[in-house]
Amino acid sequence: MTGARRRITAQMPRAAGRGFTLVELIIVIAVIAILVGIALPRLRGMIDEGNTAKAAAELRALQAAVESYYIHNSKTYPSTGATWQSALTSARPKLIGSALTDPFSTSSAQYQFAKSSNIYYIIWSVGPDNTADVTGIDSSGNLTGTADDDIYVSNGTSGTGGF
Questions:
Q1: pLDDT by residue (tens digit) across 54-79?
Q2: Contact criterion met (CB below 8 Å) for 145 and 133
Q3: Domain residue extents for the chain
């Protein structure tokens, strides 16, 4: 029996010497930190690209709703102000289901709207820098302020406003 016992114990691995050294753990943690440092800026860029695409699509929908409002309301555009979209949500036929909020706004504010002489209008998002650089539209249909990174649609000014 002693011979059988020796064979069994000889085949079992030793518990001592297993595990990772401190240097190996530090190297693994450093590699993970480097990978996270590379991935986070790319993720932020992808979030901004997604918000830009969302804002562009919603601005096009709002532009269609404003044009429809103009046709159905004696050739007048909605009033400007913080709740300008309420005219679109309460119009008959209903033009939009609910007020749309700017994805770049930290306070969940609506897209901004300005008009000039009831001829020209502009609807804009503050863009990734969360600062409204566009200030409105003049009586000739030209953008006032600077477009910078703001995203906009208009029936007057040329350009596509970032999309």
A1: 999 999 999 999 999 999 999 999 99
A2: yes
A3: 28-154
